[in-house]
Design brief:
306 residues; alpha/beta; seven-stranded parallel sheet; five-stranded parallel sheet; 17% strand
Length: 306
């Protein structure tokens, strides 16, 4: 019974140390060519091998090194997919979204543009309790973001596919719930998983449902965003600004107009990153849960895609 991790050396070294200390009964490997494929029960990777469906005949759990799992288009028969749920990536995404929401709340993109041109001009502003923040996606990340934003006094709402109840957050679900939330959202945060239903959900139709001058924090997946629709909404004034951390493709081509849109703060997919120490501990816990007959945390439901 072997755990095989395919990742960069520093992460592998940390995982090796944690596994040796906390789960010595499970074999540890980091070289796919040096391990018997039939012994691999657990595999962790970000980019799956092309022959994943057939290479590891006894694979039981496939772990993503990050929260995203849309790169795993096919799975071996009998294997289950587990997305990364650990406090390191959660805290980074939380911090990024808080930065983006506060930046849009205080009109940072406009002031950065003024700085370039040496313009000293005070714009309009609002207090936090006058600002409505809507969160698309109320899972682990959405909950962490809501908890972090609550002390600022924003009016918080959120949307998920199924009903949720979160203290201090007006929770919506379903198609009607989405329309209702969008109409009352000044700053929209996207933290959705990428599925067939959510691909290009951030499109012209959705932007039109927001109040004029709304802002966007996109920290989900690149496939959520119709980039042309975003540019059009910014040009028309329907959106006043955006923090964009994920694009499609990545890296963003050098000639793409998003680079030059003054109302966009563009970052190179840095909102979340797995922290090796806490990720290793979370993986050990999940393997122990699996060996005890319990479902791992972050288990992906095939029919839902997350």
């Amino acid at each position: 019974m072997t755990f095989l991790i395919l990742s960069y050396p520093a992460r592998v070294a940390t995982f090796r140390q944690v596994f040796a200390r906390d789960l010595p009964e499970v074999g540890f490997a980091d070289d796919a060519g040096a391990v018997d494929a039939a012994d691999v029960r657990y595999l962790m990777t970000w980019v799956p091998p092309e022959d994943l469906e057939t290479r590891y005949p006894n694979l039981e759990l496939l772990f993503s090194t990050g929260a995203g799992i849309d790169q795993f288009a096919t799975m071996p028969a009998g294997a289950k997919l587990v997305r990364m749920v650990e406090e390191g990536v959660t805290s980074l995404v939380r911090d990024y979204v808080v930065m983006g929401v506060l930046g849009l709340h205080r009109d940072l993109p406009a002031y950065l543009e003024q700085q370039k041109h040496k313009i000293w001009k005070v714009g309009d502003f609002a207090w936090a309790d006058q600002r409505r923040v809507g969160i698309l996606g109320l899972g682990e990340l959405g909950l962490a973001v809501a908890n972090a934003l609550r002390p600022f006094g924003f009016q918080l709402s959120g949307w998920s596919r199924s009903p949720k109840s979160i203290a201090g957050v007006a929770c919506h679900h379903g198609a009607d719930g989405l329309s209702a939330m969008l109409a009352q959202t000044d700053i929209l945060v996207c933290l959705l998983p990428l599925t067939a239903e959510t691909r290009h959900i951030l499109n012209a139709t959705l932007f039109a449902r927001l109040p004029r001058g709304a802002g966007l924090v996109q920290a989900g997946r690149g496939g959520h965003l119709d980039q042309d629709a975003l540019l059009a909404a910014l040009d028309s004034g329907q959106l006043s600004g955006a923090f964009i951390d994920v694009t499609d493709p990545e890296p963003l081509p050098a000639d793409h107009p998003l680079w030059h849109q003054p109302r966009v703060v563009l970052t190179p997919h840095i909102a979340g990153h797995t922290r090796s120490e806490t990720a290793a501990a979370a993986t050990v816990e999940n393997i122990r849960r699996h060996l005890s007959g319990l479902p791992p945390k972050g288990l992906v439901e095939p029919g839902r895609g997350y």
